[in-house]
Design brief:
There is one protein chain. With 446 residues, this protein is an alpha/beta fold. The chain has a single domain (3-440), classed as Single-stranded right-handed beta-helix, Pectin lyase-like (Pectate Lyase C-like, 3 Solenoid), CATH 2.160.20.10. Helices cover 13% and strands 30% of the residues. It has helices at residues 3-6, 9-14, 53-58, 173-178, 262-265, 351-361, 371-382, 437-444, and strands spanning 38-42, 63-67, 69-82, 87-90, 99-108, 111-116, 119-121, 138-141, 144-149, 152-154, 161-164, 182-187, 190-192, 210-211, 216-221, 224-226, 234-236, 240-244, 247-249, 256-260, 273-278, 281-283, 295-299, 303-308, 311-313, 323-325, 333-335, 403-404, 412-413, 418-419. The strands form 4 sheets. Strands 3, 5, 7, 8, 10, 11, 13, 16, 19, 22, 25 and 28 form a 12-stranded mixed beta sheet that branches. A hairpin with a 4-residue loop joins strand 29 (412-413) and strand 30 (418-419). The longest helix has 12 residues, at 371-382. It is globular, with a radius of gyration of 21 Å. The termini are close together.
């Protein structure tokens, strides 16, 4: 019997947020997405065509995308490329079990986008080792004013959730930063099990998040990274990142790291990067290198760093070092006396409270967990789980029964995309999780 079938009701309930609207405070977001725009209903689980998610994304003008279907959309080894701005993707509106994208990912090549309550299970699709299939589960590509909240990203063959784009656009540092991703908020996401020795042409590529050179205004707020070889996250040259109350579990060779590579910056003067890290937790697991530091510095560019109340321990709770380096270079860590990014508006938790809180609230549809999320979160809580090479090692792609239900505008606050009665699709009285017929059958079999 698999681990999901063995979960007790109390354990599963522990991993469900009882009040989906109860969130810690944060500053105003950089966008309202498609607020005030037209409502577009997704009515089919087909990859494309009339009523599809792809068609809704390609529609021009401000829009709120809602779902009248639940289940899996098989992307068949493709990427949904968002190029039309001013869009809110409200996965929370889908009937249980929500929307899961299989065998592909999402790229944001535009601005003013909100993505919430979606699952993306990328995976290798059975392709041969080193065969060249490489895609992020989610990435911005010179995208800006983007909010990525309460999503689950699993089994990426490149990064699970990233902010990327061109390194040098224009002639000045200000132009470089304007020409790549900026002002992107990652909040309450679960990013886990990036595939290591899989289809990526470079070989091992279990990566959490890449923040590309010169990306600025990048915020990681209460996310979970679990079971990645490295990049939780990797911050590249000149980038500026704020990390507040995140959990990093079972990083293998590197957790947070900074690298301005001379080979990539040849002919350009290095720009000092910035990381502010407050109230984060790094906990070692089965794969974590002995004495792995929380932050490692590589390359030739300096990093300005402010850290406060960050906890880092190994599998047995023993302290791990805060700082280390890789490569013999002249790069310097410049410890700042004050935060390098504004902390105004954040209700920052003590690091000791982070793990319990994010296990209950991060990921897609915390009130309506899928079996993959339950497994990953349960293993984090128990100190279990491993870096994997293929989705097959953890059960493979799920078979999800399709569902349907109308979206009733009068039942939702269209400004916030929260239900007026406080009950999300799939949530029951008292906040207990909804179980699909398959879930009920597994529970009955115990």
């Amino acid at each position: 019997m698999n681990i999901v079938a063995r979960l007790t009701l109390s354990t599963a309930a522990m991993l469900c947020v009882l009040n989906a609207g109860a969130a810690l405070a944060h500053p105003d977001d950089p966008t309202q997405g498609g607020a005030g725009g037209r409502i577009i209903r997704v009515t089919t689980l087909a990859k494309d065509g009339p009523g599809s998610f792809a068609e809704a994304l390609a529609t021009k003008g401000p829009r709120i995308i809602v779902f009248e279907v639940g289940g899996a959309i098989d992307l068949e080894k493709s990427v949904l490329d968002i190029r039309e701005p001013f869009v809110t993707i409200a996965g929370q509106t889908a009937p249980s079990p929500g929307i899961t994208l299989l065998r592909g990912g999402i790229d944001v090549n535009t601005h003013d986008v909100i993505l919430s309550n979606m699952r993306i299970l990328n995976g290798s699709n059975g392709e041969p080792l080193l065969s060249g299939w490489e895609t992020d589960s989610f990435s911005t590509v010179a995208g800006y004013n983007v909010v990525v909240e309460n999503n689950t990203f699993l089994w990426a063959v490149d990064e699970n959730m990233s902010a990327s784009g061109p390194r040098f656009t224009g002639d000045t540092v200000a132009e470089w930063r304007q020409g790549t991703s900026h002002d992107v908020v990652f909040r309450l996401n679960l990013a886990a099990e990036g595939l290591a020795n899989s289809t990526h042409p470079k070989g091992e590529h279990s990566k959490g998040s890449l923040i590309h050179d010169n990306a600025t205004g990048i915020v990681f707020d209460r996310n979970i990274w679990a079971h990645h070889v490295e990049r939780s996250p990797l911050v590249k040259g000149g980038a500026q990142v704020l990390m507040v109350n995140n959990l990093i579990y079972n990083p293998q060779h590197r957790a947070v790291h900074y690298n301005l590579m001379d080979l990539e910056w040849a002919g350009h003067e290095p720009v000092t990067g910035e990381i502010t890290a407050v109230g984060n937790v790094m906990r070692g697991g089965n794969d974590t290198d002995e004495n792995l530091p929380f932050l490692m510095l590589g390359g030739v560019g300096d990093l300005a760093y402010y850290g406060r109340d960050n906890i880092m321990v190994d599998l047995h709770g023993n302290p791990l070092p805060a700082f280390g380096r890789y490569g013999v270079t002249a790069a310097q860590l410049i410890e700042a006396p004050e935060p390098l990014a504004s902390l105004d508006g954040y209700d920052i938790m003590p690091a000791a409270d982070v793990e319990t809180t994010v296990l209950a609230t991060a990921g897609a549809r915390p009130w309506d967990r899928g079996p993959q999320e339950v497994r990953v979160l349960y293993f984090i809580a128990e100190g279990r789980g491993d870096v994997i090479d293929s989705e097959v090692e953890v059960g493979g792609y799920p078979t999800i029964e399709p569902t349907s239900a109308p979206f009733v505008e009068a039942e939702w606050d269209l400004a916030t995309m929260r239900p007026k009665n406080g009950m999300y699709p799939g949530q029951t009285e008292g906040g207990q999780e909804h179980l699909s017929p398959r879930g009920r059958a597994m529970r009955a079999s115990r």
